[in-house]
Amino acid sequence: MPRQRSIEEFTSDELRQLLVEKRRAEREARLESYRKTGRVIQVEAEKPVFTDTTPYVDDEPDEEEPLTNRRQARNRRKKGMERFLLIIEIVAIVGLVVIIFQAFNVLNLLNEETAGALAMPQLTPTALITAVVLPSGHTAPVEGVEVKPNDAEIPEHLRPLMQSYADLPIPTPGAQQARQIQIPAIGLSAPVVLGDGWEQLKKGVGQHVGTANPGETGNVVVSAHNDIFGELFKDLDRLKTGDTIILTTQDRSFTYVVTGTQIVEPTRVDLMAPTPEKTLTMISCYPYRIDTQRIVVTAVLQED
After folding, report:
1. Beta strand residue intervals within the chain, DSSP E
2. What is the C-alpha separation between 302 and 257, in angstroms, rounded?
3. Distances from the Cα of 71 to the Cαs of 64, 82, 83, 85, 294, in angstroms?
4. What CA–CA distance (Å, rounded) separates 92 from 78?
5. Which DSSP category does 265 fall into?
6. DSSP states of 80-115 as a string?
7. pLDDT tens-digit map of 216-231
8. pLDDT(172) > 60
9. Per-position b or e across 166-182, b if 16+ CB within 10 A of its CB
10. Which of 56, 91, 120, 264 is the most exposed place for a label (fewest CB within 10 A)?
11. pLDDT, tens digit, for every residue of 270-292?
């Protein structure tokens, strides 16, 4: 059995040769391990021949080199994929913003179309005709002749319209509508009913439907007959400026002061129009038992 030599007995060239062989063996072991795991493909290569005079060259690659190259390749692929996904996300966000913007525009368009479909044409307001002649008109009470509403006062083409108004139901009186009228100067105290049609004026003084209530801003219009059904407004022509008229509602009384009297034609319906002040208009036929005109007495509210 040959004697083992100590390290001191080896020359530097022999030590270098031993180191090369050892590293070659280690490299062969790694390559064999790579081949078994399929990580490398074996390629026949000419094996170098080493002699004692062959200079030492450490041509063994760094054992970390294969792993480093693969890691770098994976990193490059990962970064490339991240950039690709980032681009996709940006495109998706931009697309979502565009979709929302388009949806908003479509919604506005639909709203405009719907509003246009529901829009009604602009209507020009017209005056509401509630009367074509002043109330309380009737034929003169002549012996043996029936007294009835005087249709001759109404223009022929408006008579059907007036008939339609006559057929309308009278609303239920409210608490703020007139219930009684008192005129001390002519000794009158009479009930007030809502409506001034033929049947309503048989029951008392009639308040024209749709006019202001006592104490309110506007025109309170009342009427009564002067020569039939109690002759309630027979003496309106005796009233003078400053005389008082008291209208009573369910809750309280209001005092009006006479400001003037005028005789007009039955067609002066403008005297029934609303006023910016708190006024009262009283209407009756005139002259007594002739009834071809109207007497109209106006008054204003006496403030407390």
Report:
1. 180-183, 188-194, 205-207, 218-223, 244-248, 253-264, 278-286, 293-301
2. 6
3. 10, 16, 18, 21, 115
4. 21
5. -
6. HHHHHHHHHHHHHHHHHHHHHHHHHHHHHHHHHHHH
7. 999 999 999 999 999 9
8. yes
9. eeeeeeebeeebbbebe
10. 120
11. 999 999 999 999 999 999 999 99
pLDDT at 60 over 90: no
**Which amino acid, 231?**
E
Q: Where are the alpha helices (DSSP H) in 119-202?
A: 159-166
What pTM did the predictor assign?
0.57
Phi/psi-derived region of residue 154, left when phi > 0, alpha when psi is between -120 and 50, beta in every other case = beta
Task: Look up residue 241 and give its two tokens.
Answer: 């400026």
Report the alpha-carbon distance of residue 261 to residue 248 in Å, rounded. 22
**Residue 278: both structure tokens together:** 């708190």
The tokens for 173 are 């009186």
Show the tokens assigned to 24: 């070659």
Other C-beta atoms lying within 10 Å of the C-beta of residue 5: 9
Q: Is 235 helix (H, G, I), strand (E, B) or coil?
A: coil
**Amino acid letter, 284:** S
Tokens of 58: 């450490």
Q: What residues contact 82, with CB distance under 8 A and at least 6 apart?
A: none
CA 33/CA 172 separation, integer angstroms: 111
